[in-house]
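Structure, all three chains, one model.
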Amino acid sequence: MKTLRRIIALAIKELLAILKDKQSRFILIGPPIAQLMVFGYAATFDLNHIPVAIYNEDHSQPSRDLIAKITGSPHFELVDYIEHDEQITPLIDTKKTLIVLHLGSSFSSDLKRNQPTKVQAIIDGRNSNTALLTLGYLRTIITDFNLGWAKQNGLPGPPASLQIRPWFNENLVSRWFVVPGIVGLLSLVITTIVTGLSVAREREAGTFDQLLVTPLRPFEVLIGKSIPGILIGLTEGSFILLMAVYWFEIPLRGSIGALYLGMFLFLLSATGIGLMISSLAVTQQQGILGAFLFLVPSVILSGFATPIANMPEFIQHLTYINPLRYFLIILRGVFLEGDSYTLLVDQYWPMSIIAIVTLSIAGWLFRHRLS
Amino acid sequence: MNTFTKKRMRLMGMIRKESLQILRDPSSIAIAFVLPVILLLLFGYGVSLDAKGVRLATVVEQPDTNTTSLIGSFQQSEYFVPIVYNSIQEAEEALRSLKVDGIVWLRNDFSNRLLSRNNAPIGVYVNGVDANQARITEGYIQGVWQNWLLNYTHDQGQDLKIPVLLEPRIWFNAAVNSRYFLVPGLIAVIMTLIGAMLTSMVVAREWERGTMEALMVTPIHIREIVIGKLVPYFILGMGGMFLSVAMAVWLFDVPLRGSFWALTAASALFMMVALGMGLLISIVAKSQFVAGQVSIIVTFLPAFILSGFIFQISSMPDAIQFITHVIPARYFVAILQTLFLAGNIWPVILSNAAALLIMMFIFLGLVKRKARKQLD
Amino acid sequence: MESSIALELERVYKTFTTDNTIVNALDDISLHISSGKVTGLIGPDGAGKTTLMRLVTSLLVPDKGKITVLGINALQEPLRVQSSVGYMPQRFGLYEDLTIQENLNFYADLQGVALTDRKSRYQELMHLTGLTHFTNRLAGKLSGGMKQKLGLACTLVHPPRLLILDEPTVGVDPVSRRELWSIIYRQVKKEGMSVLLSTAYLDEAERCDEVILMHQGKRLGQGTPQFFSQPLRGRVFHVTSPSISKRSLSIRLNSVSGIIDAIIEGEKVRIVTESESLPNLSEIFPDHSDLSIEAAEPIFEDAFIATLKDSQTTVVQPKNTLSKTSRDHSTASDVVIDVENLTRKFGDFVAVNDVSFHVTRGEIFGLLGANGAGKSTTFRMLCGLLTVTKGTVRIAGLDLRHASAEARGRIGYMAQHFSLYINLTVEQNLKFFASAYGLSRAQKKERIDWAISAFELTSYRNSISADLPLGFKQRLAMAAALMHEPDILFLDEPTSGVDPLARREFWQRINTLAESGVTVLVTTHFMDEANYCDRLVIMADGKVLAEGAPAEMKNRFRHPDQPDPTMEDVFIELIESNQNPKEKVA
């Protein structure tokens, strides 16, 4: 009974201390919204308005048709027509265009003779990802053109053709992938910073000593200091969740309960890590630095932006101790794949273990790191 | 003693003091040298946009030589790891539980329709959650399919009559290795971070430790304080810069096709912008805590997302494209990616350098305006 | 043209705006300071001393008024002012990661001292400050006194014509304090320098040629220290009584109307009366016929208290209800705190070296020493905040480090710098500590009401703690430490940085607490506060130099040329006789 009363008093005090401070209030509200907007809108691999220059040596109807198909697509934007070979290099070099499409003088005659004709695409490979995606868009348009041409001229199609169907994200929208990830990313950042500073702040102010001479036991301090981090993380997470569903219109297909169970376990482990950093730090600055040093790798090595499968094997093993890895799978699973509890068991238990380990270490450190 | 000697003495004294503090404080050395190494290693190895080892479930309902040769093409590709499933239901279950990333499904009438040239369908499902990976995977699958088709028709003694064949030529990075553009772009992000972090705390630290008050009641000019702080951190930052370039070239094998001197000059310019930004934050913030926070929020994230380092600026909404113009890293990323992969393309380098120069004047001008020898 | 006036302020106003309140830091101040003299700026916390100094050094611009420094208009030519004055702020800007020599070089560069002049100037300054043998030591590794001396040396590297020092002696041990003063006087005599300094030590006012007394942004008076104290002649007395303890005597005298101030001084109680007619004490103390009263020489401190208590509307009279029950005195010999052979090392550095002492119930026990003497380390070990390298600590028979939560509930702790949650209100702070000590809802309410009224915090009940005046922060910190009515109270530097009025009031509360049977362990670097303690230890370099009652200690150092030694004299002699011979030679 006394224990409970002490824990509640500590949790209330922590919440008040965070929410009453102008600076921390700003950290809780400003950056998350800015990041949500920036990530939601800017962090997309989908390409629009790719600048394209056309080098058409064949001034015929079929070549104009193909060009119209390309420039009419929302992905491409015509920037220039060119006449000579020498014009290609400066255009690409100076980044005026990303791609030069070269239709040779025999384009229509080849077509009419039923001979395959080649269209050259010169692509700026300085950003190879963009180059590959551009090529993909171009391929789709040309395949489409080929089918149309074959049909128009009564030609047989290829002996076999691909019927590609993306699952879960049928239109392959990057935002569907990025935005659910932000729920995890931002709740991790907020929780780590809130808890990462909670002990360091008290140490700097001298109040931590004051706390330790009261009858509060280490585990009571631990619980009292965890509650605000988890509450704030849950609030922040729920807010971004709402934004994802109603502002960015990402479909939420799976079980919300399964999502929140994951979020709770995730925040528990983030709190443990934050408190661990905090009890090791002597000053708030060290706390910030520690939180930063933890956050950067854990975001990069979580699969938030790039797939874990692409990493070297050693680094792939390292990602198993990263709680964000598991939560991202849960988020995307529940949002897009419609997952429920049973499919996510393998994500729940590793986070629980991380939470238990980090919280225990943090609790131990409270008393043993004093000098 | 004339005023000029006194001026020089004050400036040298300031630089000497600042340098000694850097040498005594391991954290600034760590920010300049250890941070770039860790970040480069982390990103260089940890971040890759190339799809490799895509796990592909293959379902063949009626195996024969044709299906074997098609599936064999997938097996030979370095991009795929085919896993055999006996029924489409099992394969779909595997896709749902993330055991595979995609499915290739050949129905039992595949060979019949192939032989009758009746547009035999190859069912392909990919997990579209990560849209970028899914697109790239699709591209690879298309490549495998086209090659197989060419070989197949050739073996049958037929001509493949595809009206328009795309012949892509990717310049500067023929192997389409994402590391080639990630590493140079990363240098810009790291330099932003280092420049801003190094300086953002130095003025704030003087305020917090009470040294600023004593410093201000000396004949020193505010100009001398600013220059005295810039010089040592500039040298330190350039050290970090060269270290990063060396790692890019020798560890990650990124080709450096442009001039090393142009790279040095552009980096120096960018370093000044980053340091100016850090100093400005530092002067406005007056506490190390706030300065550190702000420098991470206003420098690191924008440099990462809005610089064109990974995400194509031209594809962003107009409002955000507009914002990118005030992100110095944007110009430096353009210079770096060009110098590393394309070479000395002066129009690109000079126009972006001009933008950096303007930003430098703006930041240093603001520093000069904001910094006053007064407490309120 | 060299005028005889070093500094002149004409009708200067300065206000600050914090969140929603406007503070008049300086309110119509006019004054002038003559050259070649040491002028002291004295006043309680928030009087505007630091603001005045920052205005003079052109770090701040006045809202209104004219400031002339050495004949230069400070508003028009701030840089010329800054080139001709030497200024040492409260926390002087030493670069702790540079050595003494590097700090000196840096300031010499800034001040444009010619390279050829440097060697002799450095030698002279190092000799004056006694730092000659430490020039390669990092400034951060120096003791508090050495830091202040180095700060002064840096300020003097190019001899300024006007030297401005903001509380140069705060937290400095008495030996270094004496040395600082002798350096300052040397500059005045040798170089004809003018000095303006502020101080929190009222005894230092006596050392100034002239004193400016400030309060709440106003100048209350200016003159020699005697100019202030002489009007009090005939109103200052020493009271003694063998049959009543000096502590109870002072508590009771303080509540007598007509007596402005009653403090323990040595074995006597010093009182200042409102007028020259002495209240009839035998009427007030009918049970103590042995009361003896003798006139005493007024000093500046008396004048300070008398003036400020006049100008303050609320006369601070702590209520006698600090503890609800008076505890049993019969077991006074109970040992409550027992420390034996206590040692603490940080790496190779021995912070506390073989310290032993014990404290009995109801005692006020003091740990005295300069900054860095090992007081705080000892203190933290007593509270169980730091592990012990060697030796034992028993608090009420228990080691707090391993004691149960309930045992910790019996002690109260007030940390250095009044560690409270600064962005919570007064009431929220009290509520939190009451709950942390596990009080029930009813108890909590009762104790909070008690604290608010006993510490006169009513008008601040819902204020954010950060906005409280320092004296009130101290009250709140003490109230928080007393929420659960502890038997033992630990106070770490409870009066550092607090102005003389708040210090006085604080000790009155402590006296009352001790009277009711609470054991108090207190650390302090104010030597005059030793008089409030029943017994004390003096520490230096981690060792106990002396233990005993204040009177005993003074007796030990009484000799013909020092008939009435103060605690400060005792301390200085102890330090000098203990001075590590190696350090002296090195």
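The first strand of chain A starts at residue 50 and ends at 56.
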